[in-house]
Amino acid sequence: MKIEQYCVGQVGTNCYFAINEACNEVLIVDPGDSAGMLAEKIRQEGLLPRAILLTHGHFDHAMAAEELAGMFGVKIYAHEAEQEVLRQPRLNVSAMIGRRDTYHADIFVKDGEELELAGMPCKVLHTPGHTAGGCCYYFEQDKTLFSGDTLFCQSVGRTDFPGGSMAQIVRSIKEKLLTLPDDVRVYPGHMDATTIGFERVQNPFIV
Question: Which domains does the chain have, with CATH numbers?
Fold first, then answer.
């Protein structure tokens, strides 16, 4: 897997391309803004989009998803517990920036569900705490985790938005993410990449 990172939107969200170099197929993770720029990158590189994966439904992760899905004819994936967040501006916090956006997903996944997308196996890990249906996408073969706003480098996602819970996000990380091998590379929704092993000993919220 080749990973490309693009910082998009007014709060600096990491959007990722997870590319299967064997076939040039790509998964788009958390396209929170800049649909035109992302589409141009896809076309320039000759990539073949196969799905859009949302780690959660906040505006800064979901705002460009529908436009990109329409451009490339792909489905949007999200966890089943995130449906209300996607639909309600108060919960997806678009209301905080003066918008009244509603978002959607085409396919709602469950905790532990195994997906095969762009020729790459992926496991869904439900990690509530930042939002009710926040989730991470774990690519075991590539030792790669897209953690959204659950786990950051030496930090965790905010829990002061509607539906957030510090106790819940810490439990999610300890019970779901810290069970992964130390050498799993973590690609978060904001800030720099990290590893499970580093966070296990250096993250002040969970040690």
Answer: 2-202 (3.60.15.10)
